[in-house]
């Protein structure tokens, strides 16, 4: 396969912080002597007490990851206080509402006051260092205040995306034993409201039945919609803030004190609470934000993610604010009021750096170029993508139509677990190839291995591992270190296994090919097939379910469910609709099945293992090459599955 290379753009090279020689020399230093490299770059954040220890990490045995461990700092201090002298009146957050006429700007001075007030509200309600605070909020500035207020007092936040159901929210509240929740009356997206408070009320009830008593629910009024109110438990945000003091000293946090938990799906079991800590995380998030986007002082930066995902944590809030940037927070969706919204907002706020997901690019590409061209987009300088592989057609459209061949595209590969960007081009340093995440960031040592763990060299396909630690790495699964070791370090002993397949080409460029485990990626949202399966079998008419991904033009992958019913039940449209509703209730709208196939049986080996390889092929309508089916217990079930497949071309 030969790919067209787009040379580094002259304009990008001229202004870039890092050119190719610098990249190569820094990369060499970062892997040859990580201690020396990170000693230097750890100083990019302010420390109350400087570290003397830098790296203390092991991927073997019990697995222990510590960075800058004797240093003392505070994330909120680094994201706010240290900027006040120089840029107190600079805008920290530009908020763009769902409604295009609704926006506001928050300066660093204002951010300081709001975060301090909220921190005091939390303190006066008994929230202490180390307590877990659940944040279930729309994309409003108060979500960022909530994160930073937690960081300020040393509480650990756990953000749950607003698209999750009360059940899913309750599961996360219970898992980390969180008794303080911050939410809003309703969210607003694409003109539609989302009943966040109502969902929270239900979740609190479920959590109570599962042994976790929620003490307080702090409610921001976003829409003013009417919501239930529990006296003594619920607190009106605006009222409480007004009564609170506008100063709150930042807590002294050790580098390895937890900053946040973020739940993410894996190939088995319930979602895991990915735990990130303070010092290393902030060093890594801020450094990647600066170099990957070639961020310069004064730039207007926009990442379209939601704070419910790790991208929102690292690249809407922590990375940009630690760098004193102006970060844009968008409440709405890409196609409301119409498919030109992104580009209108770029013009309106003169955005220089724009970071979004391939699924959005594909959807907007489908709406036609006129929506793009009606905006000037003159301010744009760097474009980025994240979340899933970007197909070359979408990449080229982004490059030629949106960026008019003037903006490098940084295709950034990383994960909730990695805390920050791992494999990516740097705008002024890296020649681009459409669809490749290109080369590792400083300190990141990728390795490709085969199924048996043999290391593969040169141009090859393999499973992507990282062989040494980087400061932004997750430290553990909250409350279950053994699961951390099992999930990430046991497939290939002594290595961090990403779960992704990957190709390395003759230039040493990396091309992520997608998950090799039972995780699917739907519109950049990560979903465990096991979770959807367990939601399906919890329906009283379902006996067994198997879920696989299949290629979807816009979403990247769609959710395909094979369902066998209890004896006597019949599969029909009504039941299909009911099952979709059921999954939405159990997990949330983001897990809505795209296809449901009723099947009399699933293909299993004689030992009872479902042969997913076959199910994937049938879902892809590619059943000519099913491979060896001779080990199946009942080969005949396959004929029925093929006959009744839902993706017939
Ligand atoms: C999985 C991680 C990291 C923020 C958003 C997703 C896939 C992510 C890319 C990319 C190809 C990508 C991988 C990864 N992924 N970025 N640039 N190219 N694949 O975070 O929910 O933790 O999902 O997303 O499969 O393992 P996440």
From TrEMBL:
Q: Which residues form the AMP-binding enzyme C-terminal domain?
A: 531-609
Report which superkingdom the organism of origin falls in. Answer: Bacteria
Q: Pfam families of this UniProt entry?
A: ACAS_N, AMP-binding, AMP-binding_C
Q: Which InterPro entries match?
A: Ac_CoA_lig, ACAS_N, AMP-bd_C, AMP-bd_C_sf, AMP-binding_CS, AMP-dep_synth/lig_dom, ANL_N_sf
Q: Which residues form the Acetyl-coenzyme A synthetase N-terminal domain?
A: 23-79
The chemistry this enzyme catalyses reads: acetate + ATP + CoA = acetyl-CoA + AMP + diphosphate
Molecular-function GO terms, alphabetical: acetate-CoA ligase activity
**N6-acetyllysine carried by residues:** 609
Which positions bind ATP? Answer: 387-389, 411-416, 500, 515, 526
Q: Which residues form the signal peptide?
A: none
E.C. no? 6.2.1.1
Residues bound to Mg(2+): 537, 539, 542
- PANTHER family to which the protein is assigned, alphabetical: ACETYL-COENZYME A SYNTHETASE, ACETYL-COENZYME A SYNTHETASE 1
State the function annotated in the UniProt record: Catalyzes the conversion of acetate into acetyl-CoA (AcCoA), an essential intermediate at the junction of anabolic and catabolic pathways. AcsA undergoes a two-step reaction. In the first half reaction, AcsA combines acetate with ATP to form acetyl-adenylate (AcAMP) intermediate. In the second half reaction, it can then transfer the acetyl group from AcAMP to the sulfhydryl group of CoA, forming the product AcCoA.
Protein name as catalogued:
Acetyl-coenzyme A synthetase
As recorded in Swiss-Prot or TrEMBL, the protein's gene is named: acs
């Amino acid at each position: 396969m030969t790919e067209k290379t787009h040379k580094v753009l002259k304009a990008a090279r001229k202004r870039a912080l890092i050119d190719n020689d610098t990249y190569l020399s820094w990369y060499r230093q970062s892997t040859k002597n990580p201690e020396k490299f990170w000693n230097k770059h750890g100083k990019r954040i302010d420390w109350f007490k400087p570290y003397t220890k830098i790296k203390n990490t092991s991927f073997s045995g019990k697995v222990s990851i510590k960075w800058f461990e004797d240093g003392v700092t505070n994330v909120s201090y680094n994201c706010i206080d240290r900027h006040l002298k120089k840029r107190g009146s600079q805008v920290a957050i530009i908020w763009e509402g769902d409604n295009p006429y609704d926006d506001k700007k928050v300066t660093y001075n204002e951010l300081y006051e709001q975060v301090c007030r909220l921190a005091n509200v939390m303190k006066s309600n008994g929230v202490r260092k180390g307590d877990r605070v659940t944040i279930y909020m729309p994309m409003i500035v108060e979500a960022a205040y909530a994160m930073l207020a937690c960081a300020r007092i040393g509480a650990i936040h756990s953000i749950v995306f607003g698209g999750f159901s009360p059940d899913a929210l309750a599961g996360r509240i219970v898992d980390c034993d969180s008794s303080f929740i911050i939410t809003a009356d309703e969210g607003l997206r694409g003109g539609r409201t989302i009943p966040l408070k109502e969902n929270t009320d239900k979740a609190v009830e479920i959590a109570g039945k599962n042994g976790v008593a929620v003490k307080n629910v702090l409610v921001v009024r976003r829409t003013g919609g009417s919501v239930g109110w529990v006296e003594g438990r619920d607190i009106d945000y605006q009222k409480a803030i007004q009564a609170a003091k506008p100063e709150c000293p930042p807590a002294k946090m050790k580098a390895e004190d937890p900053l946040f938990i973020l739940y993410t799906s894996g190939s088995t079991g319930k979602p895991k609470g990915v735990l990130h800590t303070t010092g290393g995380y902030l060093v890594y998030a801020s450094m990647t934000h600066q170099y990957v986007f070639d961020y310069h002082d004064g730039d207007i930066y926009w990442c379209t993610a939601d704070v419910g995902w790790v991208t929102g944590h690292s690249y809407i809030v922590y990375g940009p604010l630690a760098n004193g940037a102006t970060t844009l927070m968008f409440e709405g969706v890409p196609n409301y009021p119409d498919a030109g919204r992104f580009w209108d907002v770029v013009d309106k706020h003169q955005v220089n750096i724009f970071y979004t997901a391939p699924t959005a690019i594909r959807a907007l590409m489908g709406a036609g170029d006129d929506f793009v061209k009606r905006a000037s987009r003159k301010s744009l300088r760097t474009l980025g993508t994240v979340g899933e592989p970007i197909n070359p057609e979408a990449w080229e459209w982004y490059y030629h139509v949106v960026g008019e061949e003037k903006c490098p595209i940084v295709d950034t590969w990383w994960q909730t677990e990695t805390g920050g960007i791992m494999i990516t081009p740097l705008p002024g340093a890296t020649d681009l190839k459409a669809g490749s995440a290109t080369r590792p960031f400083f300190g990141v040592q990728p390795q490709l291995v085969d199924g048996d763990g043999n290391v593969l060299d040169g141009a090859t396909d393999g499973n992507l591992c990282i062989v040494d630690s980087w400061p932004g790495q997750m430290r553990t699964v909250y409350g279950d270190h053994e699961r951390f070791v099992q999930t990430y370090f046991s497939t290939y002993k002594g290595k961090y296994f990403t779960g992704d397949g990957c190709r390395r080409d003759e230039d040493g460029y990396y091309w992520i090919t997608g998950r090799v485990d039972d995780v699917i990626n739907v519109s950049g949202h990560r979903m465990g097939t096991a979770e959807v399966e367990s939601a399906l079998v919890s329906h009283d008419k379902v006996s067994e379910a198997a879920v696989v991904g299949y290629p979807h033009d816009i979403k990247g992958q769609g959710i395909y469910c094979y369902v066998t019913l209890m004896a006597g039940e019949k599969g029909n449209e009504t039941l299909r609709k009911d099952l979709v509703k059921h999954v939405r209730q159990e997990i949330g709208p983001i897990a809505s099945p795209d296809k449901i196939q009723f099947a009399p049986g699933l293909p299993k080996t004689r030992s009872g293992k479902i042969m997913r390889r076959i199910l994937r092929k049938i879902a892809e309508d590619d059943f000519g090459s099913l491979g060896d089916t001779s080990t199946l217990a009942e080969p005949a079930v396959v004929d029925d599955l093929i006959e009744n497949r839902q993706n017939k071309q």
